[in-house]
Design brief:
357 residues, 13 strands, Dihydrodipicolinate Reductase, domain 2, alpha/beta
Length: 357
């Protein structure tokens, strides 16, 4: 095993995982001394380069993916993201995970759920693969499955990165378990590099800082991947996560609304529309409309590629429990909130070892 190798397991082999895996090969030859690389916040984070990441275990419940090599499974339908890198064989077989609440009726129209297959022993797979961490990309609303994977990671001595809106890192039970096991957890619900929530927060903060009173504001998101099929049906936790992220920067009560739509023809392309109604000097009306179009899964992977390396730094330093700085900067519903500016500054301090949380 290479000195700087980061051994990563992934639960949920969907579009986000596909872009995360592709990214290793897209940026494999990034020059170590080149600071500005399109798509990356940190070409090198601490001592870790993107090419140091190695995938060692994978879990899913779709018969079309289970049993395949990870390199093939990430391009298997219903995954419909863009392909931007060739991925060689990983020698990582996708294993059958627990179904629990991860296969509601509306998703079974897209997935061939392998109800007849026996789930693998996830803890054993994590230990046998010597995984450093488990990245959780299972569907929104899979509360029991998310808790199951969190428990497995902690029992196996792995860090846990929770990319979906089941609230693990703010749950005292999991916080204490992670601290006792001396494993870091980062969560919950990944922010995009540049997307609806971060843009909504920035514009809301701008209005607050400039004295513009926000009377109401809304965020509408629509795409054509299975994540949005699911969000339309059971997006309550995602809605709460997004709303609370925006509300946290507005120091007074106002109406914040979040909605989701599924348009199959858009595939993995997400369009978000932000709307503000407010008043400026003299109580004169202000209306702001903004539209952003992005490749949804790449947006998430661009942040997780850093979360993986923050988690590895914490593992190296034997830090257990929530990583507050990384969670606040990279996640919508962190256990402790900082302003985006302060969270970024704290992340840089974490990299340098000036803070240990």
């Amino acid at each position: 095993m290479a000195d700087n190798e980061i051994r990563v397991a992934v639960a949920g082999i969907g579009c986000c995982t596909s872009h995360l895996v592709q990214g290793i090969y897209k940026y494999n030859d990034v020059e170590d001394n080149k600071k500005w690389i399109p798509g990356l916040m940190h070409p090198v984070l601490g001592d870790y380069k993107i090419r140091d990441i190695k995938y060692v275990a994978a879990f899913d419940i779709d018969r079309k993916k289970v049993g395949k090599d990870l390199s093939e499974a990430i391009f298997t339908e219903p995954n419909n993201m863009t392909k931007f890198a060739d991925v060689p064989k990983q020698n990582v077989e996708v294993k059958m995970g627990p179904i629990l609440d991860g296969a509601p009726k509306h998703l079974r129209e897209f997935f061939d759920v392998a109800d007849d297959l026996k789930p693998c022993d996830v803890v054993k797979e994590l230990k046998d693969s010597r995984a450093d961490m488990l990245v959780n990309f299972i569907p929104t609303g899979s509360a029991e499955a998310a808790k199951f994977y969190a428990n497995c990671a902690i029992e196996a001595g792995c860090a846990f990165i929770n990319c979906m809106p089941e609230f693990i890192t703010s749950n005292p039970e999991f916080v204490e378990k992670a601290k006792k096991a001396k494993v870091p957890i980062i969560g919950d619900d990944i922010k995009s590099q540049i997307g609806a929530t971060i843009l909504h927060r920035v514009l809301a903060q701008l209005c607050v800082d400039r004295g513009v009173k926000i009377n109401k504001t809304s965020q509408l998101n629509f795409a054509g991947n299975t994540d949005f099929v699911n969000l339309v049906k059971r997006g309550e936790t995602k809605e709460f996560s997004k709303k609370s992220s925006v509300e946290s920067v507005i120091p007074y009560d106002t109406e914040v609304s979040v909605g989701f739509g599924y348009i199959g023809l858009q595939r993995d392309k997400k369009i978000c529309r932000l709307y503000f109604e407010g008043e400026n000097f003299g109580e004169n009306p202000v209306t702001i409309l903004l539209e952003c179009s992005i490749e949804d899964s790449a947006n998430a992977a661009g942040c997780i590629i850093d979360a993986i390396r923050y988690a590895k730094i914490a593992l190296d330093r034997k830090i257990g429990g929530p990583l507050y700085s990384a969670s606040s900067y990279l996640m919508k519903h962190p256990p402790k909130r900082f302003s985006d500016e302060e969270a970024k500054e704290n992340c840089e301090k974490l990299i340098k070892g000036e803070i240990d949380w």
